[in-house]
Design brief:
This protein folds into three domains: about 10-20 and about 230-360, 3-Layer(aba) Sandwich (Rossmann fold); about 25-70 and about 120-230, Nitrogenase molybdenum iron protein domain (Rossmann fold, 3-Layer(aba) Sandwich); about 395-430, no CATH class. The strands form three sheets. A six-stranded mixed β-sheet has the order 1-11-10-9-12-13. Helix content is about 45%, strand content about 20%. It is built from 16 helices and 14 strands. It is globular, with a radius of gyration of 25 Å.
């Protein structure tokens, strides 16, 4: 049975995924529901218990002091600090450029005397979850915190596992977090969503995490906002006969080492390249230090699809809607213009996902599991609200009141009709 639905005409598999990345979530859902309920009712005490259970440690004080933050920064070796600040500068510059495209609309008049507009209002308090994960991802705090500072968020709360690498604390500090807490997992999401004696309640939670973090974000959504529900990482590469098998294999394995559930795939119009990439992945795994993780991802979720032509390749790519989509074709810019479903696009063989993952400037928090069909990744706009407003002159009331009153009457909404008519009657009485 196919693990991928809606396979377009003209697509066959050289290598098919052995497993589906969307498994039964019932055990995680039940466990997270209990965690959220406990923390909502018992606050810090429950956070401490779950930290001890899941992370093996529970700090006496959750918040990282300013002295500890500064010590973490001082402990960075000079090159790591320089590289971190390089990434911060690039992410900041791109976020500022994006923010410049979101302008306030001060006074639009669809009719005489009817004035409308919108303001760009930063979210008051944001919670940034920073995963500790399998590796100390020094770029993770940069991607969630820096755009929040550019957007003008009032207060930025960062949570990361208590056993996270000290460099992660330094990254949160350098990126601009106002407060940093040593709390990880679903308990961090609960603490930020509901608030405790130690952790303030936030208005929106952003940032990736494991299945428990993801499920916790899903369950708290409503009273607080979230950025998205991100699953395991994904990379797909579109290539024709000009693709380089060694480069493609290298990029696939670079992403596969994130997690054993990473989805990695090649979609190509050239069967010879498909076979060469499969052989090259096997060869590179023999010397890759992270082969235990990358090899498992390739074994269970690796895919190579061979397409009859370019149209089939584009159609199948849009079905997958990969988180990271690289284009290795003869004319990558022309191909890129024809694609519509992806998290972030890497055009041409020189644009590797790893550059964006670490320091190039675009955000690495992106939609997975085909969510690229309807949303993009985390960006500066996620930290702001576009809130509309309107005001009317007497001329404007004369324009809109009659049709509004008639429509309300047609709908049987007498209260609406009266509200619409009232101001018109007052103007006519004058």
């Amino acid at each position: 049975m196919s693990l991928i639905q809606d396979l377009p005409h003209g697509v066959t598999w050289l290598r098919q995924p052995a497993r589906s990345a969307s498994g039964d979530n019932a055990p995680v859902e039940a466990a997270v529901r209990q965690i959220l309920a406990d923390i909502r009712s018992r606050g810090d005490a429950a956070v401490r218990e779950y930290s001890e259970r899941f992370d093996g440690t529970a700090p006496e004080v959750f918040e990282v002091s300013m002295a500890d933050r500064e010590a973490a920064v001082a402990a960075l070796d000079p090159q790591t600090r320089a590289d971190t600040e390089f990434a911060i500068a690039n992410v900041r510059a791109f976020a500022e450029a994006q923010l410049a495209t979101i302008g306030a609309l001060s006074d639009f008049q669809p009719r005489p005397g009817v004035h409308m507009g919108h303001r760009v209002i930063p979210v008051e308090r944001v919670g940034c979850y920073v995963p500790g994960g399998r590796y100390p991802l020094l770029s993770a705090p940069i991607m969630t915190i820096v755009p929040a500072t550019v957007a003008g968020v009032g207060e930025i709360i960062a949570c990361l596992p208590p056993n996270a690498h000290p460099a992660m604390i330094a990254g949160c500090h350098l990126s601009g977090a106002d407060r940093i807490f040593r709390i990880g997992g679903a308990q961090a999401i609960a603490a930020m969503a509901f608030g405790t004696a130690s952790v303030p309640r936030v208005d929106k939670i952003v940032g990736p995490g494991n299945a428990y973090v993801n499920e916790a974000k899903r369950q708290v959504f409503g009273p607080v906002g979230i950025d998205q529900l991100a699953g395991p990482s994904e990379i797909y590469i579109l290539a024709d006969e000009t693709g380089d098998a060694a480069m493609i294999a290298t990029d696939l394995l670079a992403q596969a080492e994130h997690d054993v559930r990473t989805r990695v795939g090649l979609i190509t119009t050239d069967k010879a390249l498909a076979e060469a990439v499969e052989a090259e992945v096997a060869r590179q795994l023999q010397t890759l230090s992270t082969a235990e993780t990358a090899g498992a991802a390739w074994r269970d979720y690796g895919e190579i699809a061979v397409c009859a032509d370019e149209a089939a390749m584009i159609a199948y790519s849009d079905v997958i809607a990969a988180e990271h989509l690289q284009v290795h074709t003869r004319d990558p810019q022309a191909m890129a213009a024809k694609l519509r479903n992806y998290g972030s696009l890497f055009i041409g063989p020189l644009a590797s996902v790893v550059y964006s993952d670490k320091c190039a400037g675009t955000n690495h928090t992106l939609p997975t599991m085909a969510a690229g069909r309807y949303t993009g990744g985390l960006w500066v706009g996620a930290y702001a609200k576009i809130a509309t407003h309107q005001w009317l002159t007497p001329e404007g009331v004369r324009e809109v009141a009659p049709p509004a009153a008639r429509q309300s009457a047609s709908e049987g909404l007498e209260g609406h009709r009266r509200a619409a008519q009232l101001r018109l009657d007052l103007l006519q009485a004058k």
